[in-house]
Amino acid sequence: MTSSVSIDSVLALCPPNHNWRIKVRVVRLWIADSYTGDNKPVSMELILVDQYGGKIQASIRKILFRKWAEVIVEGNMYVMTFFHLIPNMGSYRPTEHGFRILFNNKTNVIPCESSIIPRWGFTLKDSEAVNGDVVQPEYLVDVLGLLTAASELRTYIKDGISTRMLLIEISDEKGKVECALFGDYADIVSDFIAANANEKPVIVFQLAKIKTFRGKNVLQNVMKASRVIFNPEIAEVISFMDRISIVDFKINEPVGKLFTPKPALPMFEDFMNTHPKKSISGLNETAEDGLFIVLGKVVGLLQDDLWWYFACKCHRAVTYDDGIYYCAGCFKHVMDVIPRYRIKLEVSDEVDSANFVLFDYDAQYLLMKSCKEVLAYVKGNSMIVQSLTAVKLGEEKDLSQCPSISAEVSDPDVLTPSLGDGPSYAGCSGNLFKRKVVDQSNTVSGVGKLKMKQVKLEEE
């Protein structure tokens, strides 16, 4: 007997109605970890597609996802009912749907079968779209093409953490897209190339994020969400091979070598040769925005200003709103916030001086402690403030001898930053500039043994 209960289209889902009934395939499933870097799972994330190709993301929060961990399987199909819909917001959204499904205690999931729901749910973008301004960078994309070149597998270091990195080139009939792969994704592609050395495979890079590097769009993987597929037997690949049959890609030859500059000296020389050098007085007098190179020494710490702030997981400062925090970047109230550095320093070059702002990444690089760790330690101990004052631009102050800190930063006597519309710089002399370390210290010829940081400075 055929059921008379209707099935709703995924693309039709919108509040305030909650009586939806959808029949979908789970084309992607992953467990999302906390943004604090502690690898604690916070939710189960699903990408669902229906028979019409409509896609929507579904989230199962930590308190519920264990219930579904062994029930919902990637690739299987289900009828889903009794769920909430919330706005689909934030950076790197897996679908372009205006809403996202949120499971609740009453959500019902029943296994089913269908021969007309797509297996992969690809929404493919060609190289022309990715390299241009057609695709909005807040959405993840799928690309398909030939793997035409790859770099050597190397180690990438950020915030003191080492990660494997591989650069690859994906080509189609309209051009090529450069991609940066990290961690397990780099290993998977590197191992495949080594095992299939005599041909260029067709590769699908699913759920990749678009990043801009030196004015060019580059794709990167999103940990646990992205997927790399080689030579899938799908209609899209057959169509692609037909289109490139007239293009000389030399398919039956090895993947080419993607040569990239070594990360140390060439990057330093490029930075030093690309951006103008200014004295502090010249920096104070300039009316233009941009990146400048300045050699100076930290001579003081502005202790009358707050040296940290609360931030959302997207790194934007949050404001306090009626007992909860609000992130203007994510356009929503957030529960999880983390402290980040904003240290104001007085810098001098013996002719003039100015106030500079040292933000979280650089401060952590110099102090070798996260802001959270320092806040947990600083209560009742003045050593940190003295150490902050002693840090010189171009020197490395070792705070690693501080005892290991595991305490949560929840003491109201410690967490007391201003949570208004933003920091006030009233009363600060000189201009305020952002500083960004882009490489390791290097000895500059002609300046003896003085260490000089490569920095980006832009007006606050």
CATH architecture of the largest domain: Beta Barrel
CATH topology of the largest domain: OB fold (Dihydrolipoamide Acetyltransferase, E2P)
Total E-strand runs: 26
How many separate helices? 9
- Mass-distribution shape: globular
Query: How far apart are the first and last residues' alpha carbons, in Å?
Result: 68 Å
Name the poorly predicted regions. 388-460
Largest sheet: 7 strands, mixed
Spatial strand arrangement across the major sheet = 5-6-3-2-1-4-7
Specify Rg, calculated over alpha carbons: 26 Å
Give the topology:
Layout: E1 21-33, E2 41-49, E3 55-61, H1 62-68, E4 77-81, E5 84-87, E6 99-102, E7 108-112, H2 127-131, E8 141-150, E9 154-158, E10 161-172, E11 175-182, H3 184-195, E12 202-213, E13 216-221, E14 227-230, H4 235-243, E15 256-257, H5 265-274, H6 280-285, E16 297-301, E17 308-311, E18 318-321, E19 324-327, E20 332-334, E21 338-348, E22 353-359, H7 360-367, H8 371-378, H9 383-390, E23 432-437, E24 442-443, E25 451-452, E26 455-459
